[in-house]
Amino acid sequence: MPGTARSFALTTAALALGLTACSAGGPVDGRPVAQSVPTAGEKTKKPEKPAGPVTLKYWTFSPPEAALKRAITAFEQANPGIEVELSTFAEADYRKRLPKALDGGEVIDVVGLPAPTMTRAVANRLRPVDDWKGKVSGDWVEELDEGAVEQTKKAAKNGELYSVPMGSSGGAVLYYNAALLTELGESFPKRAADLESIVMRVKKEIPDLRPIVFSGEPRKQEELLFTIASQTHPTLSDDLLTGDKPWNGPEVVSALTAYGSLFDRGVLAKSALTLKGDRPAELFRDGKALFLVDDSGRSPMLSKSYRETKKVAVKKIGAGPFPTILPDAKPAVRSAVEVGLAIPRSSKHVAEAATLVEFLTAGDGVSSWAGELTLVPSRGDFRMESSVFATSEGKDGYTAIQELVRDGASLNVPDEVFLERAEGDAILDVAHGRMNAKKAADRLQEEWARGQ
């Protein structure tokens, strides 16, 4: 249940421990944070206090360190006698270092996992959530988004829940220069035809402005393709990777055809496929593009603190779902639990670790880190405070992204080997007009069968 008053049951062994500790928590920086909505009518009991100070070792790669330090400061204030030693890593390094540390028996109390991609690799070194969630009172795991919990379960071979989802991401979505769109007298485009009309108008009336920017990297184009596919077949991406549907089936051909049509009609510029990395976002932030296609990881652009820190030129930034293309399509994205919090078997302070996990996923700690907007919190009743955002358009845009990510029916994680070997090239060949949708789909199926 939300709230710092949530109690935890310490075991007799845990009460007997009296370890000297030091804190890695940082000061609260005063920036506006998110607002939590408490669940009414819940009863709590006063937490028991440890016999002596306990230090929890917490390793992770996300959310940003500054946000986590604010959350840890709040946790330590709410839980006297428990201190947290935070270690953050770059994700690429973390993926290599964490398995080695756990296999080597290093004592770590809480770890953040890239849940969909790392769970199976380290599950044998983690405590199943059912073994420790009861050390915190209340049905707090039930307060989390059901889809995020189910996705986290599926990440393990046996369907066991080994981590508690903290936050998710998804894409692709459409960010827009809200001030300029208003000046043009245009509304946010809901359908591809609306987007095309705006693009053609910009090309004619503001020739120096790029209508839409995006990354031409294969991973980003794959994300856009399956955003389009998800608008009519929400589970298609998962069905392809599990072998339940063929890559040359009508659903894939239809999605590739719709995707290619955006380039053929000039809605998306083929020249923009040369853009990489942060360059599209830079052009957009500097006011050199009306729209940006990117994933929910760009949501910090909607915040007041980001705008002030990065000195963003665009006066107002909004966001919404990528316009629908096919008939009867509905706005959609694929989504993925970016961070799940787990307790390793090596932890000596399981009850205290469980308290920290609850605080960061279902309790008041969510308010301390979520304002960064890097993740959509898994806590089901969570809403962001208006003061986090630079404008009302930003607030509404984040709400739209939050709903899209929570409704995502397919996992936003491709088969990286297949993407590099065949999928990325086939998608880009369609974008450039070098191959039609049917031929590209047939090649994908052939390569998929060969790889299997």
Protein architecture, described:
By secondary structure, this protein is an alpha/beta fold. The protein folds into two domains: 12-168 and 338-383, D-Maltodextrin-Binding Protein, domain 2 (3-Layer(aba) Sandwich); 173-332 and 391-451, Periplasmic binding protein-like II (D-Maltodextrin-Binding Protein, domain 2), CATH 3.40.190.10. It contains 17 helices and ten strands. The protein is globular, with a radius of gyration of 23 Å. It starts with 11 loop residues before the first helix and ends with a helix. Mean pLDDT is 90; it is low at 1-50.
Number of strands: 10
What is the top-level CATH class of the largest domain?
Answer: Alpha Beta
CATH superfamily of the largest domain: Periplasmic binding protein-like II
Percentage of β-strand residues: 5-15%
Tally the structural domains: 2
CATH fold group of the largest domain = D-Maltodextrin-Binding Protein, domain 2
Describe the sheet with the most strands.
Answer: 6 strands, mixed
Ordered list of secondary-structure elements with their pairings:
Blueprint: H1 12-16, E1 54-60, H2 65-78, E2 82-88, H3 91-103, E3 110-113, H4 115-122, H5 146-154, E4 164-171, E5 173-177, H6 178-183, H7 192-205, E6 210-214, H8 218-230, H9 236-241, H10 250-264, H11 279-285, E7 289-294, H12 304-310, E8 317-321, E9 334-342, H13 350-361, H14 365-369, E10 376-377, H15 392-407, H16 416-432, H17 437-451
Parallel strand pairs: 1-2, 1-3, 6-7
Antiparallel strand pairs: 3-9, 4-9, 4-10, 5-7, 5-8
Helix pairs in contact: 8-10, 8-16, 10-16, 10-17, 16-17
